[in-house]
Design brief:
Elements (H helix, E strand, L loop, with lengths): L1 H15 L14 E8 L5 E6 L4 H7 L22 E4 L11 E2 L5 H4 L7 H14 L16 H7 L3 E2 L1
Parallel strand pairs: 1-3, 4-5
Antiparallel strand pairs: 1-2
Length: about 160
């Protein structure tokens, strides 16, 4: 009886197997298709030689000025129907502004035309008179006139 159950189990298992032929790649295929997108002048599908690398595709592709290929592995071998996205460079962040209310002497001294002595005067003025309420109040500090204020006004905040 045990042998009969095993036989039926194996028969059901054998009948459940899909015997369709598996699709195999064409051994005579000499090119592959890849999709190139991102920071390129003409994104789309490219036909490239079998075993082409990312570097070979980059050499054949016209990149935009802001293309950033530093994160791509140039030696990576591409396969049929791969997707190659060329990233664009991120705009560099504007330099952080220096707070005239909380900036240290060292931070204030990084401003154009403000040296350590003037930075110390700003901190001393702030300690004596309290926090600045408006940016142009900075002109009340000895050594900071209209021209020096105009030179740094885009670099400071409250």
């Amino acid at each position: 009886m045990k042998q009969l159950l095993i036989f039926f189990f194996l028969l059901v298992l054998a009948l459940g197997i899909n015997l369709h032929q598996l699709p195999l790649p064409d051994p005579l295929q000499q090119t592959i298709s890849i999709t190139v997108t991102g920071a390129v002048k003409s994104p789309g599908i490219r036909e490239v030689p079998l075993h082409a690398t990312v570097q070979e595709v980059l050499e054949q592709t016209e990149l935009l000025d802001n293309a950033d290929t530093s994160s791509l592995n140039p030696l990576l071998i591409l396969h049929d129907q791969d997707y190659l996205a060329i990233p664009a460079q991120q705009p560099s962040a504007a330099p952080a502004k220096v707070s005239i209310n909380t900036g240290t002497v060292e931070q204030l001294a990084t401003l154009k035309g403000i040296g350590p002595k003037t930075a110390e005067k700003i901190v001393a003025y702030r300690q004596e008179h309290g926090l600045f309420q408006q940016l142009d109040e900075l002109k009340q500090v000895s050594g900071i006139g209209d021209s020096k204020y105009e030179a740094i006004k885009d670099q400071i905040c409250l």
